Amino acid sequence: MTIFKTTKTLAVGTGLVVFLLVLSIYWLYNNTKTKLYNEVISSHQQTLAHEINRLIEDRRESAMAIALALSESQQIRDFLCKTCDADKQPPLDFKVLLEQLALHTNYSQLWIQVLDTKGVSRYRSWTSKTGDSLIEARRDVRDILHVPQVIQAISVGKFNLTLKSMVPLRNEKQSLLGIVEIVSHVTPLANQLKRIHGVDSVILVEKRFREQLTKAQTGMFVHDYHVANSGTNPKYLTFLERLGAQEIAKILPERVYENHVITQHLIKDDTGLIIGYWFTFEPIGMLGFSEIEHLNKQYLYASIVLLVLMLLLISLYLFKQRSDKGLSYYRHVLNSASEIIFVSDYSRIIEANQQFFEFYSEFSTLKNFLQKHRCVCDTFEVEKGYLQREVDGEFWLDYVIRRPDKHHKAVILKEGERQFFEVKVAQIDIYEKPLYSVIMHNITNQELYKQQLEFLSETDTLTGISNRLVFNRTLVQEIQRAHRYHSELALLMFDIDHFKNINDTYGHEVGDQVLVTLCEVIGELLRETDVFCRIGGEEFTVVMPETNLEQATQTAERLRKAIETLPSQTLPTSLTVSFGVVSMTRWDNDKTILKRADDALYQAKKNGRNRVEVAEDSVATTNE
After folding, report:
1. Is residue 297 part of a domain?
2. What's this model's pTM, rounded to 2 decimal places?
3. pLDDT tens for residues 512-565?
4. DSSP per-residue string spanning 175-203
């Protein structure tokens, strides 16, 4: 009986302890699950916030690149020319350009507007209505006309919330001709976010702009908040209707409503004022709760161990089996990632995923890789602005870790082609010795597209040589360098004699081919250090660093003779050019030296053309 009672008491006591332990585990499980649940939702919001900011910034940069390229358009300059015959100027039409951008890039729904120096709209790509002044309605127009400079802004107008990129237009004498403006809409950004992350968006404009939106683009409003993006899901508009105006304006980054995760991202203008709200919607079941699933498994294992003490060996065996499956699962996840992922102990790589070996395909194991490379940084190309073994005196891992907010990039040569990677490093401190997880995301396509845009903004599309933008920048840089190091600098300025007769006689297509042929001939006769630019219709310049007046004059004469003696089968008629030559004095800046070169060119024209004239100030300086 005593044994029975003792056994019963022990059983009751054990049962009570087990019950309390299970209860404690359950309480801890719920708390941890809630915390992880909130972290997953918060991480989802942060990921979308980062992506939205990136989409807006990429859109602004691309729009600015297009605006800069259009600011060099001779067609737009001729269109705004005050002294030109307006009846002879062809109308502007960028419909084909906008269609090509929409077809071949992500940049659809772009508007182009051209304004003159009085702030009057001379051209709008989205409507035929022009001739109205924007001076009173838009402060940014007043600012750029008062102080001509590049302006980017995000604001609300009559139609919608838009991103604007504005660039001043100047003629050859640097006088202001007007403004070219690229207007970007937000609907493509919402569509792009949908394609990348699969989430729906509703972008609302602050209700204080309700009366200003006289031509609201979508015509939809939710509690006086204008719906800025088209193609929205009616279900989510109903969600916002139910939330009410006060909840919409409440700054709450994430919330759960009717089994959906709704995130809110503030849209601010350049002064920091809130002008809109970007809401995203995703069914809660679509979020990845893998950590919570893993948590369920861990607590299940603990419960089994506590409840089945008598079957300890079996429980340990089952636990080991499940753990092995868990490790296999995480290995599978790492190997299915499209990024290169590896772990380093600072001195060497200790683990890498499958993508690592697919990129470094000549190696099948880490041992083989480490036999040739002590560090993955040994494969980085040494290029300015990109990661290499040491950056600013720091080992590359330390450099990236200490600058978490900076975008770090590396270039790796694979099969003769440059591959660009965005590199992120995180320190793992759960072991005695810290480890470093490295993620390398291939951004080659984005980098090449960015370089292509930069090339297009700096190159004359007809002749392939540098344009006026490059000339202005190079001239300033070379003058500063020549002043600093007391070196010599010369400038050639020339144009084609009677070029208008060629266009009138043979047509503009032949005239264009003449310009291309001339540039090919001139380009072959110049040094690599000379910067050859087209700054007008048939007007060209050559910036010649480390060159005195005599050398520059000899070069100009050589170029003149080369053009004069071109064989007849090369061109439809004989061709001559006139040169103005100038060397920099200690009083010169970019405007004065260009003016003296232009005066010398004018003198060459006046003295009969097909000749080289040297600026008088340059001769006097040389004689001194």
Report:
1. no
2. 0.44
3. 999 999 999 999 999 999 999 999 888 999 999 999 999 999 999 999 999 998
4. -EEEEEEEEEESHHHHHHHHHHH--EEEE
| Token pair 């260009």: residue | 594
At 311, the pLDDT band (50, 70, 90 cuts) reads low
* Token pair in block for residue 7: 């056994």
Q: Based on the domain organization, do 281 and 372 belong to the same domain?
A: no
Are 123 and 149 a contacting pair, CB within 8 Å?
no
Domain tally, the chain: 3
Over residues 219-276, the pLDDT tens digits come to 899 888 999 888 898 888 888 888 887 888 787 888 888 888 889 899 998 888 998 9
DSSP, res 265: E
In a domain, 32, yes or no: no
DSSP type of residue 407? P
- For residues 2 and 57, give the distance between their C-alpha atoms in angstroms, rounded to a whole number: 80
- Is 306 a domain residue? no
Evaluated on CA atoms 554, 560, 565, 571, the torsion sign reads positive
Angle between helices 549-564 and 616-623 (to 10 degrees): 140
Active site residues: 538
Instruction: Give me the CATH number covering residue 203.
Output: 3.30.450.20
Using one digit for the tens of pLDDT, what is the confidence trace for 465-524?
999 999 999 999 999 999 999 999 999 999 999 999 989 999 999 999 999 999 999 999
In a domain, 12, yes or no: no
512 vs 468: CA distance, rounded Å? 18
Report how far residue 466's alpha carbon sits from residue 470's, in angstroms, rounded to the nearest whole number.
6
Please indicate, yes or no, whether residues 441 and 491 belong to a single structural domain of this protein.
no
* Residue in the structure block whose two tokens are 């868990």: 326
**Is residue 436 domain-shared with residue 464, that is, in the same domain?**
no
Asked if residue 276 lies in contact with residue 267, where contact means CB atoms within 8 angstroms, the answer is yes
Closest CA to 535 of 554, 550, 519, 521: 519
- Residue 421's domain comprises 337-450
* Helix boundaries (H) for 72-94: 74-80
CA distance 254 to 46: 10
Say yes or no: 354 and 486 in one domain.
Answer: no
484 and 446 in a common domain:
no
Among 450, 480, 511, identify where a domain stops.
450
Same-domain status, 139 and 180: yes
| Tokens standing for residue 590 | 């970019």
pLDDT at 576 exceeding the cut of 90: yes
Among 95, 89, 137, 135, CA closest to 116: 135
Are 134 and 144 in contact, with CB atoms under 8 Å apart? no
Report residue 209: phi and psi, to 5°. Answer: -95, 10
Residues 121 and 200 in one domain: yes
Alpha-carbon separation of residue 186 from 20, 67, 126, 218, 245 (angstroms): 56, 18, 16, 12, 22
